[in-house]
User: Fold LysR family transcriptional regulator from Niveispirillum lacus.
Amino acid sequence: MNNDGPDFGLRALRAFHAIVKTGSVTAAATAMGLTQPAVSRLLAQFEQTIGFDLFYRDKGRLVPTPDGLLLFDEADLALGTMERVRALARDIADFQVGQLRLVAPPSFAEGVLPDVIDRFLSRFPKVHLTIDSRSVETSKTLIATRAVDGGFLKLPLDRPDLTSVPVANSGTVCVLPIGHPLAARSWLDPLSLKGVPLVLLGLGRLSRSHIDAAFARAGVRPEVRVETHTIGSACALATRGIGVAIVNEMLARSYLGNRLLMRPFRPDLRHEYAFVTSAMVAPPRLALEFLSDAKHYFAQQPKDVLDETAGSPV
Amino acid sequence: MNNDGPDFGLRALRAFHAIVKTGSVTAAATAMGLTQPAVSRLLAQFEQTIGFDLFYRDKGRLVPTPDGLLLFDEADLALGTMERVRALARDIADFQVGQLRLVAPPSFAEGVLPDVIDRFLSRFPKVHLTIDSRSVETSKTLIATRAVDGGFLKLPLDRPDLTSVPVANSGTVCVLPIGHPLAARSWLDPLSLKGVPLVLLGLGRLSRSHIDAAFARAGVRPEVRVETHTIGSACALATRGIGVAIVNEMLARSYLGNRLLMRPFRPDLRHEYAFVTSAMVAPPRLALEFLSDAKHYFAQQPKDVLDETAGSPV
DNA sequence: ATCGGTCCATAAGAAAAGTGTATGGCCGTA
DNA sequence: TACGGCCATACACTTTTCTTATGGACCGAT
Assistant:
């Protein structure tokens, strides 16, 4: 590196600065939280290092030399920027600055995340938060490559380069408009849905195959009226009476409005979501903080509509 | 002072900076002239001080975290300004920057100083040099109050707040045009100057009273044709045959040209000049350097015209 | 003039920080 | 599997830096 020129410590420069500012070694010492001899030595050593006197010793008092004043201006600047480094380090440590990039499924981002985000941002107002919605595979790649800091994905995960922490566990419900004949039942199963127009989503996704399997086991052919891809649209269709939507309960709640209601679907198909980060390295601290908020949020959410309506049908 | 925030050393910051720049602890260590464990420790300690990780430990390699990169930019700046402080300190030590303000009598500044200045400035090209000519009293005050760093004054000095170092010792000569009748003599005294038109200077100054006293002792009334105030003008008058000038020999040399010559004046009235600084504090280093050049200059000047023409008259 | 207070410098021992050598773990590659 | 590069830790040693104690110089006041 640059090895020319005198090499002095930060403390020495600070001592010099403080002496000029306060006008005496003693005052500088108290200002720095040191004893007077310590500062005296610091100064003496600093002067010896740079090779010229910073102060006249005038009857025991220190008076800056022209050289000293010349150096002081520059030292003032340098200490200022050092102070900025310290301040920045503190801010980073306190999450006063920073950036967090996450991915989450659209329904997750629309439904449950806003509350978590609200809490998170109130804790870290200065943090820049980004939440994208991508396809599942893209999300996994983004997380694994650390193009984003983390994200919410549905379990199970098939990739070893991802680390997951389960945060939410939801059942499956049927969403139907108020007044629908089946609304009288406290729960629904494939048999009870025989011939009933359905709105299903996620053709090709794992959760969808579970539904299909449940119907198959019951010997019922599902009357799929519409295939869609977001819970929001499925609920919108259900609202208009186009069909009964069979969806993730937790995510459906946000879209119920006042014209829809839920009834548990049986068998109990579970949807488990996890906060996922790259397995390569430790997740960013902000990601952990966000995860903490997410856990907190889910911890105080009603577990399941099944719990609320536990009991026998009608 | 500001005691909040993490306090880390310059070495730690430099180590962090070097690691990011070189990409590895090992490379940073060689760049800093340290061993790898030393830098490793420095980094570990730095991270502990600021409270968050600067690098991912990815399979044994260090990869900067976003936080680390954030801090790096600021650290880069700070180290840059620290480098500027070091450079300035070095320049000050090497007299690559600085200012020297002196005072000197006009004839001094015109006659002998240019050579000294030449030498001084060739040694310290970047130094800003100021030389003023003021009245003797003003000069003393300027020096004593350190409004200027030093100056050349004629001895003796009557003030205890000034420190003087004799640098030049000159005799008194008569300056007369070539072909003047008295040029035949190898020296002149009041008696030989009886009735000869004279050009004298410094009415009221100490040296003038010495000349008057010499004439008085010889019982000769000086035939003063012109009173003037600078040696330059006295010589100019002498050139035109207006009168014989009795002046400081050393200072007169610069004004002789090719139409004047000097003859020692007897009695031998000495003019002693000293480099004067404030007695309150040590003189600035640049003043001492200038003094050194002045001494060097006078050391290789012919001592006195008396020495050259030592011998008997005619 | 002497005394008390202030200020700076130095000495000496103690505490802290920094450094080098040695060593071990981890990973990628031959 | 062995080797080489990289990082972290352990331990002993050196250097720096701190505090306490002390002395000298100066100023103002009694």
